[in-house]
């Protein structure tokens, strides 16, 4: 038997349902309703268009990780509640009530997305997202990335150099550190997911066209961007590579044998908790000054082996902050400062501030900083971006009017994928769809919409600016 990623996600929900049934009848009802809703709306969207169908899978993945993994540990271990130090303790009743609200939010997200796609009528009988054969045939006609490899390699190497210079030598972006360099603004011109997605597109779609030397150049760029991100204490490189490959599998509807799924799951159950310990150890080494690779790996392994499975599960799921953030928002929902900062006007103006050079429309702190200040109570001079998840952020954004924000967010996605589907250049379509995948995942998981919207817009702008740059280099060559 072979299983698509969607079917694997359904099996994950069924597993969660079985576990929840052993914990609480209320949780079992919530998980069974979530399973039924997901199946129904998946079938509705699969009849509308292929790109809508694949986008729904991305949303489902994000929702599972953000909102339906965490309750399974919080129910019996409320002491693991992420914001317990700054808000009141978590009880089982509060958790279950919040999960019912999350379930209703999920319904309105699905509903908005489905209505929008129905109105947009995204039927594409011969679209490039049809099957693997169509994709390969079309890419054979569109070799922009191969024909312009030298110019793109120069561009990639320059962007990677910028990130290494900023992250490794100037320590820009290091978690817990104040920004101490006037060069930090350069990072907006070298977004890591843009760099990694281009490299992954080469390896996935054009691997048969690449020479050995070209592969070496790509591997070196991938290695150094990973080093740059690890230097900040971030594990984003592994996540971005995984999401890029996952997006490809979603596009071509790759199916996996059951034994391969089981083997990959077993490996991930070990590697993911270890990677979190490794990331934490790298972050601590920045402050301690002990940057020995041997010591970092040995301490990471020791921490990993000494933790119980429950502690490891908590360490991983606590990074998917949706449930904890929704509970914190409910407990601190009367904070007028949060309503102002997360408001629509403030959010859009701050996004413009980030997109436009030297923009200064608003002087309020961004949403991530607001979470650090007003929920986590962290010092103002510490560089840290907290999050409360997409659902809680949208509630605050729309003045705590229940479910309106998430419904409108679902509606907006239909418009976005309609615009994406109009792109004619195949290379750009895949790259922008990758970026859109990151946008959806971050929007649902973190909810820091000022930053998320700005980064997505910057990447779209950079795609076309760099495209002109590459064409310019080519014209110089043949002048």
Which characteristics define this entry?
mainly alpha, single chain, 2 strands, two-stranded antiparallel sheet, 479 residues
Write the layout of secondary structure elements.
Blueprint: E1 2-4, H1 5-23, H2 25-46, H3 50-67, H4 71-74, H5 92-120, H6 132-141, H7 144-147, H8 149-169, H9 192-205, H10 212-230, H11 236-252, E2 255-257, H12 258-288, H13 293-306, H14 309-317, H15 322-331, H16 336-342, H17 344-355, H18 367-374, H19 390-397, H20 404-421, H21 426-445, H22 449-477
Structural notes for this entry:
By secondary structure, the protein is mainly alpha-helical. The chain has one domain. The protein is built from 22 helices and two strands. The chain has a two-stranded antiparallel sheet with strand order 1-2. The longest helix has 31 residues. It starts with a strand and ends with a helix. About 3% of the residues have low confidence.
What is the subunit organization of this protein?
Answer: single chain
Shape: globular
Main pleated sheet? 2 strands, antiparallel
Number of extended strands: 2
Count of alpha and pi helical runs: 22
What is the radius of gyration? 22 Å
- Tell me the number of structural domains: 1
Helix vs. strand class: mainly alpha
- N- and C-termini, Cα separation: 56 Å
* Lateral arrangement of strands in the main beta sheet: 1-2
Helix content: over 70%
Mean pLDDT over the full residue set: 78
Uncertain regions spanning at least 5 consecutive residues: 122-137
User: How much strand?
Assistant: under 5%
The H-and-E topology, N to C, reads as EHHHHHHHHHHHEHHHHHHHHHHH
């Amino acid at each position: 038997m072979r299983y698509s990623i969607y079917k694997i996600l359904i099996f994950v929900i069924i597993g969660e349902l079985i576990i929840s049934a052993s914990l609480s009848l209320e949780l079992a009802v919530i998980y069974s309703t979530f399973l039924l809703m997901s199946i129904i709306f998946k079938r509705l969207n699969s009849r509308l268009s292929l790109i809508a169908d694949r986008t729904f899978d991305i949303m489902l993945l994000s929702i599972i990780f953000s909102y339906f993994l965490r309750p399974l540990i919080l129910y019996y271990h409320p002491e693991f509640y992420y914001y317990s130090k700054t808000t009141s303790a978590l009880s089982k009743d509060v958790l279950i009530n919040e999960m019912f609200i999350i379930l209703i939010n999920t319904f309105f997200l699905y509903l908005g997305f489905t209505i929008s796609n129905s109105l947009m009528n995204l039927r594409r009988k011969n679209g490039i997202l049809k099957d693997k054969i169509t994709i390969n045939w079309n890419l054979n006609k569109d070799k922009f990335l191969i024909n312009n490899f030298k110019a793109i390699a120069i561009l990639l190497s320059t962007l990677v150099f910028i990130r290494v210079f900023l992250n490794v030598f100037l320590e820009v972006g290091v978690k817990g550190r104040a920004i101490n360099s006037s060069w930090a603004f350069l990072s907006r011109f070298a977004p890591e997911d843009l760099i990694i997605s281009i490299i992954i597109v080469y390896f996935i779609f054009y691997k048969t066209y690449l020479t050995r030397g070209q592969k070496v150049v790509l591997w070196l760029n991938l290695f150094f961007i990973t080093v740059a991100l690890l230097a900040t204490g971030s594990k984003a490189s592994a996540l971005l590579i995984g999401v890029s490959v996952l997006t490809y599998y979603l596009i071509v509807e790759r199916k996996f044998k059951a034994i391969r799924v089981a083997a990959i799951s077993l490996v991930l159950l070990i590697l993911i908790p270890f990677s979190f310990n490794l990331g934490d150890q790298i972050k601590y080494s920045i402050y301690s000054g002990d940057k020995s690779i041997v010591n970092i790996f040995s301490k990471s392994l020791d921490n990993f082996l000494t933790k119980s499975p429950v502690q490891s599960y908590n360490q991983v799921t606590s990074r998917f902050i949706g449930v904890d953030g929704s509970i914190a928002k409910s407990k601190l929902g009367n904070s007028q400062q949060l309503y102002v900062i997360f408001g629509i006007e403030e959010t859009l103006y701050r996004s413009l501030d980030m997109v436009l050079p030297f923009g200064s429309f608003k002087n309020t702190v961004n949403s991530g900083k607001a979470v650090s200040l007003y929920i986590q109570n962290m010092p103002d001079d510490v560089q840290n971006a907290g999050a409360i998840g997409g659902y809680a952020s949208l509630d605050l954004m729309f003045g705590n009017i229940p479910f309106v924000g998430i419904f409108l967010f679902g509606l907006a996605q239909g418009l976005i994928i309609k615009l994406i589907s109009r792109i004619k250049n195949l290379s750009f379509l895949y790259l922008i769809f990758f970026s859109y995948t990151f946008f959806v995942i971050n929007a649902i998981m973190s909810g820091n919409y000022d930053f998320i919207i700005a980064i997505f817009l910057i990447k779209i702008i950079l795609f076309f600016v760099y495209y002109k740059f590459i064409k310019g280099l080519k014209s110089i060559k043949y002048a």
